[in-house]
Amino acid sequence: MTEVSSETPSDVEEFLRHLAKERDVSPNTVKAYSRDLREFVVFLGGYHGTDGWTWERVDRLAMRGFLASLARRGVGKRTMARTLSGVRSFYRWMHRNEMVEVNPARAVGAPKQEKHLPGYLDRPQIDLLFQMAETRAMEGNFGDVRNLAILELFYSTGMRLSELQGLSKADVDLVSQQAKVRGKGRKERIVPIGDHAMRAMRNYESKRDELLRQLSGKVDRSAYFLSRTGKRIGPRMVQKIVSAFLAEIDEDAGLSVHSLRHTFATHLLDNGADLRAVQELLGHASISTTQIYTHTSVERLKQVYEKSHPRA
Question: For the chain, which domains are there?
Fold first, then answer.
């Protein structure tokens, strides 16, 4: 078998093209696989030294050495697991194409993940958040009206940041109060929009249309959420808007945009929603991903119990 060069990993490039064109994997996933596999190639070049190496020569020890090198650099367990998953996928593809006989990555277990309960807002905090946002939106400024609609939609639907930022006008139907969302792996799902969010979004649409009438030049008429210049709002701007509000609620809690998604799921489960329904609303491929929110709810119930029960 031909030796593999760390400068020109042609097999890796072919695999990435396969993912993008034949498997229709999202661009973000392809980028992550590209980064992880190039790092793997660089490691193998150092591991085998000047003798050169082939994909066939990579064994279980080399795989463990690669994971150990990531750990020494302080790479988190979640990232290590994702990297190992990418290497496994690459070897599966090579095995199907008869480029290797075995998959050495299968013999190495992924690092055990540490479970962290996600941060979320309780009901008084949510009430305060929307009280602040509504007060600002009452002034009628485009940015404030849009920001209220963004917050309402996050909490109403549990959308991811990328899903909200990627919304187009055609995806939103306020008559039937639902939106079409493109999630991970480009999977589409329909999510309901609550009354509060619907009203905030109607007000925003009026302001957006007014803005587009005033602007000349190149504007994005298909995007749902716009910046003041008429372009699709960027993910960093959405993060900045939401983070500024959350910092006023609790500066030290480490709350983020994703906390609104956690809050959405936690409040549904606290109020008796079915776990499978929440899984579908969130767009989780596996029920086990959704189950972390049940842990959050149980922790909250424990705290209530300990504060309230005389003999807790």
Answer: 10-107 (1.10.150.130), 123-308 (1.10.443.10)
